[in-house]
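I hope you will forgive my troubling you with a question about protein structure. I am sending you one protein, given as its amino acid sequence and as whole-number tokens for its backbone shapes. Thank you for your consideration; the sequence and its tokens are set out here:
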Amino acid sequence: MGARAEIELLLKASRLDVTLTSAAPWRQPGREVAPVGLAALDAALAGGLPRGQLSEIVGPRSAGRSTVLAAALAAAADRGEAAALIDTSDRFDPASAEAAGLDLSALLWIRDTGDATRALKAMHLVLQAGGFGLVAFDLTDVPAPLVRRFPHTTWMRIARLLEGSQTAAVLLGGERIARSPGGVSMALEAPRPCWTGAADRARLLHAVTLRP
């Protein structure tokens, strides 16, 4: 048996094989998903966020992270599921989310926890409680060095809590944070301005292009 085959057998035994031996683990047939509620994104994800997995939405400011989150929360509420948001830096705008179709009575909003460590504990408590269709952990305004200081086992423990559940969990941040083997990473780009005019000082903003 070759070295690659031996490694794959070990990965399969640990249920980690989808990370290294499949180019698109989220496209596995028969897996359960939580649709985001945005047709183009759900199509790209083969239906939505994988249940029982940790996924992530990352990108710079104005890339659309909050829009995707609001759509996913609203979609969960429309399905009759409870959702939870651990809002580390108190960024969530309930008025905008409600305007986007979110039933706020279906959302557990844990806000302004003060620091990332306390927010992480709140995330653990929510996942341990269970019963949520979607759980989001917003680390967007937490400095990246602080997030990197979390023990390397942090995300493995969260993935273990999610295993076998109907909960789809998602991290939000400015850069890639973590995901479980069957989770997805949605990397969004900042909007691209389109200008008209021949000279720099005579240009006018014509449109803004958004692209995931």
The chain is about 35% helix and 20% strand. Residues 82 and 132 are 5 Å apart (CA to CA). The first strand starts at residue 33 and ends at 34. Residues 14-23 have pLDDT under 50 and may be disordered.
